[in-house]
Amino acid sequence: MNRTDRLYALVEELRAIAPRPRSARWLASRFEVNTRTIERDIGALQQSGVPIYAEAGRTGGYCLDKAHTLPPVNLTPEEAVAMALALKHLDGTPFRAEGRSALRKLVAAMRQEDVAAARDLALRVHVLGDDTAAPMPHVLGIRRVMRIRYTDRAGTVTRREIEPLGYVGKPAHWYLIAWCRLRREIRAFRTDRIVSYSVTAEVPPPRRLRPEDLDIPYGDVEQLSLAS
């Protein structure tokens, strides 16, 4: 059994008996490897986001949080490649890392024969790169006041304290929507013009992003939905 198959089988073994634990020694015997290999495999799974934790004690071992894992996903190879292609368009957005993490979890939950077919198909798909994509701050999960250095259209750099509220994206640029304490109003900051930023310990007062705050003259703003 190769390592990829073993990692998949490890997750399924722990899922099958969750929330009970399996010891590293038991798993090593089951997969015919040594305990050090099992520990490395468990560490790799944890780093990829699989919710495995260790229980101490004589009857302890590794446990899987069943409520936070995916069962085997019945995606076809074509569907998996379509999702990889869609996630490729997250390059240059605040969700690039999360998209890659989601794809890894998705592939880990697929059947191995479908994974092999999807990888073979993906090798035939080529995408032209975009060298203009700039790294962006990922601040949607931040509930703190931020300090930024921002370059305006004329090239003037200002220092501001802002309260992040959300993002607006379009093909060419992404904008961070925030309450600007300098201007005392909601402003849209083009993310590639944010020179630097830091997060403070201050929790700002709650503010709601209203539809009229997104009355942007460049087109209609559509709210993202997880529904199809």
Automatic annotation (TrEMBL):
<dbReference type="Pfam" id="PF13280">
    <property type="entry name" value="WYL"/>
</dbReference>
<protein>
    <submittedName>
        <fullName>HTH domain-containing protein</fullName>
    </submittedName>
</protein>
<feature type="domain" description="WYL">
    <location>
        <begin position="143"/>
        <end position="197"/>
    </location>
</feature>
<dbReference type="InterPro" id="IPR051534">
    <property type="entry name" value="CBASS_pafABC_assoc_protein"/>
</dbReference>
<dbReference type="InterPro" id="IPR036388">
    <property type="entry name" value="WH-like_DNA-bd_sf"/>
</dbReference>
<dbReference type="InterPro" id="IPR026881">
    <property type="entry name" value="WYL_dom"/>
</dbReference>
<dbReference type="InterPro" id="IPR036390">
    <property type="entry name" value="WH_DNA-bd_sf"/>
</dbReference>
<dbReference type="Pfam" id="PF08279">
    <property type="entry name" value="HTH_11"/>
</dbReference>
<feature type="domain" description="Helix-turn-helix type 11">
    <location>
        <begin position="6"/>
        <end position="62"/>
    </location>
</feature>
<dbReference type="InterPro" id="IPR013196">
    <property type="entry name" value="HTH_11"/>
</dbReference>
